[in-house]
């Protein structure tokens, strides 16, 4: 994922006072609007909770004996291992870039964000293709060193390493901003009090960054919990792959739904940790004057350059270079099929990029017009889908559609295997992505602006067009860009709920990797990486000027 909002963004920060309401009827109407937007997420929770509370005895016995123990244990190990890895790697890189001066620091400040453009399943494709038994590295080893044992990467440590390389920017970005804005100044104070550089970092800068380290780590752990493509490429059984195999291997929607219920318990546990971590974040501003980074000694400076360069090489430069080499070999296969795949991906991404910012704008507006505790809970429910893995959403929507078809059989063509069902699942999964920048832009809409406009005779829809929309335009465009890129990269929802024959670039990558055709996956993978570079660049530019908040 290229960018990610907080797991439960606070969409109620920008609100009008109660006098902005036009009577209880209007307030009730806005609550109904918010309820309608939150209804798909509520349906997912109800469907999964029903499976958890009323399990199918025979199916549950099979799952609990043969599937859930291994998948749950693997998932737990993976989430904990990736969480530890990204916290150490992301914090270390952030400290070097924010607090130290060394050769190449200015380059690595933004280059270390580039892995955000490479989805984890693309990174997995490259490394399995390189290190697999038939790959170039092991082939060279067998030719020149026949007695050397082969390298096995399809295991827990292999998938863990790939996910750490793909997700460490979640920690690196937020910790870098925290240390650059205030951590360096605290280190200066600690140095004046007689502490050595290492002591100053441990006792002054690191405690300041702990909430940000925790927040970024929990977000990376949530992405690990939701990952499907990378773990499937490594043949590493987790709860997400168990959902897919139970659904498509055993043809059991009820069994997949019961695994999804177990996965939801993991999600809720991480959400509780995330909420507790965010509740303790309190910061003060120490001044906006620029701080001086510590110039490292020659040996330490070149060691810092080597560490940053090695991470950048492994997480971005090497995978993209390998994809380019494979793509050049497969360029002759670039035919009409690829353009159809690209067209399908673009249609879905454009549809979501139009729909979700509109829903986010409506939800934000409802909160402004009818602020209340109930509205706050509806907004949180509507944006909760970002914390739900795509495999969980896919099976829940399929089951919910089946329930609706029993009541309204005429909706068969509209619900099952349709673009509408796919876009609805996208809306639940990525509404938080759209809501975060829209809500940030809504902070500019002060009550005094509206009052001034009304005094000039501008009200109603004209007020929205002439006053609100120009101020919200940047946030809406940002939301559209982020949603567009996330939908282009999304795999499990599209794979499990797409209409028959409606393949996308991400689905084709999954099909190629399933068959072990790593080189043929290079062309669609490069297209997705290229699209992912856009918000990565935007995120770097925005983080350079954004204050710590």
SSE topology sketch:
Elements lengths: L23 H30 L3 H10 L1 H32 E2 L3 H7 L8 H12 L4 H9 L11 H37 L4 H30 L2 H5 L5 H10 L4 H27 L14 E2 L2 H32 L6 H34 L3 H10 L7 H18 L4 H4 L3 H24 L4 H9 L4 H30 L2 H6 L7 H10 L7 H24 L4
Parallel strand pairs: 1-2
Helix pairs in contact: 1-11, 1-13, 1-14, 1-15, 3-4, 3-7, 3-8, 5-7, 5-12, 7-8, 8-11, 10-11, 10-15, 11-15, 12-22, 13-17, 13-19, 15-17, 17-19, 19-22, 21-22
What can be said about this structure in brief?
By secondary structure, the protein is mainly alpha-helical. 75% of the residues lie in helices and 1% in strands.
Q: Which whole number gives the mean pLDDT? A: 82
Order of helices and strands: HHHEHHHHHHHHEHHHHHHHHHHH
How many discrete domains?
1
CATH class value? Mainly Alpha
Tally of alpha and pi helices: 22
> Which topology does CATH recognise?
MetI-like fold
- Which percent range describes the beta-strand content? under 5%
Q: Looking at the structure, what is the overall shape? A: globular
Main sheet?
A: 2 strands, parallel
Q: What is the β-strand count?
A: 2
Question: Widest sheet: strand order?
Answer: 1-2
How far from one another are the termini? 22 Å
Query: Which stretches of 5+ consecutive residues score pLDDT under 50?
Result: 1-25, 284-290
Broad structural category: mainly alpha
Radius of gyration: 24 Å
How would you characterize the overall build of this protein?
Helices cover 75% and strands 1% of the residues. It is globular. It is built from 22 helices and two strands. It has 549 residues and is mainly α. Helix 17 crosses helix 19 and helix 19 packs across helix 22. It has one domain: MetI-like fold. Strands 1-2 form a two-stranded parallel ribbon.
